[in-house]
User: Fold this.
Amino acid sequence: MGLAALAAFLVLTGCEGRKNVAGAAAAIRDADLAFAKATAKRGVDGWVSYFADSGVMVTPGRNVVGRSAIRELMAPELGDTTVALTWRPVSVEVSSGGELGYTIGRWDRTSRVNAGAPVRHGSYVTIWRKQGDGTWKVMLDVGNADPAK
Assistant:
């Protein structure tokens, strides 16, 4: 292989790697947004459908591991039809291999029946892993509320 061919190969494979990471970042952002929509529409069923089988939620005092434990934890919160939980990613990062990534975002918990009720806000970090079928699943999710004002 000549020097020019080698240089072209290195440039093209480097560009392909950047495309894969950019594509993964867009896919993770889309997965995070779809996760929020599924939860708004289907409650706890939508929530757990985005977790990997061994997914983890970090909560005060303990880590909750696996879909059934996560379902049990989140059912009361997501089954309350008087409140709405919404969120949006504000940044996405992806590993160089394009198989892992994370979103950082903001969440809001609002009342559906009392427009004057206090609104809670907070931040979250969700770690995503690309699955064998090409979908992205939550491996770890942690969120915290903003300090009360």
User: Anything to note?
Assistant: The chain has three helices and six strands. Residues 3-145 form a domain with the Nuclear Transport Factor 2; Chain: A, fold (CATH 3.10.450.50). The radius of gyration is 19 Å. Confidence is low (pLDDT under 50) at residues 6-17.
